[in-house]
Structure to design on (231 residues):
């Protein structure tokens, strides 16, 4: 049972903007940076956004992240068919001597 | 860039110990943190724990009583042992490198993952 809650699914047509929320608490998102991972079908996850809003090299600027209080968001603008997959937020939780936690995951569908 | 490869049995019997090894290539295991993450079929990601190259570890509270992560710097490998497994431990197991500087912490390189099934 993850302590980070995401909507199970999100969808959009090509070119649209899709936003995924990640809700946590003061012991995790409220106190630590948030990262986002993309998992395309049949592949390992890959880092998409780190430290709330930074993109690793090679990640298109269509992907953007933000954080406010105990929540974070990932926006995918100019949605493309190759963006279909699962997206996970992740952060550190300071409770119970500290542990890493992933969000529940959101499946993005391009309709 | 760093490459990681998981290896180990794909089938483990209930109540036995799951053992996996992650081999790091195109880079040294020294100086970094290394992690295990798993994903049950059709479910989300679950962090298992991490180890610093020196050997210090941190585990998920939910798995702490059954998990041991160790490192072998001479072989550029780190390993996972999960004891007393049940069907609920069936998952794809990933190893990953942890980039960790101050408050910045993320998994930047991942192995391809290996499916471990717990069944008699």
């Amino acid at each position: 049972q993850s302590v980070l809650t995401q909507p199970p699914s999100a969808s959009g047509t090509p070119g649209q903007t899709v936003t995924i929320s990640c809700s946590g608490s003061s012991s995790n998102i409220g106190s630590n940076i948030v990262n986002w991972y993309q998992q395309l079908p049949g592949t390992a996850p890959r880092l998409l956004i780190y430290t709330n809003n930074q993109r690793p090299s090679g990640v298109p600027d269509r992907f953007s992240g933000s954080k406010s209080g105990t929540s974070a968001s990932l926006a995918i603008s100019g949605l493309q068919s190759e963006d279909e997959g699962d997206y996970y937020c992740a952060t550190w939780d300071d409770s119970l001597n500290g542990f890493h936690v992933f969000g529940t995951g959101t499946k993005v569908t391009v309709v | 860039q760093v490459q990681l490869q998981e290896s180990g049995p794909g089938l483990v019997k209930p109540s036995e110990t799951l053992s996996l090894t992650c081999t790091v290539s195109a880079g040294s295991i020294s100086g970094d943190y290394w992690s295990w993450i798993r994903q049950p079929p059709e479910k989300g990601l679950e962090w298992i724990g991490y180890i610093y190259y020196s050997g210090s570890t941190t585990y998920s509270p939910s798995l702490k009583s059954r998990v041991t992560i160790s490192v072998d710097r001479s072989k550029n490998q780190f390993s996972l042992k999960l004891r007393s497994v049940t069907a609920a431990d069936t998952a794809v197991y990933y190893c990953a490198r942890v980039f960790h500087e101050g408050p910045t912490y993320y998994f930047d390189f991942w192995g391809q993952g290996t499916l471990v099934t717990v069944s008699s």
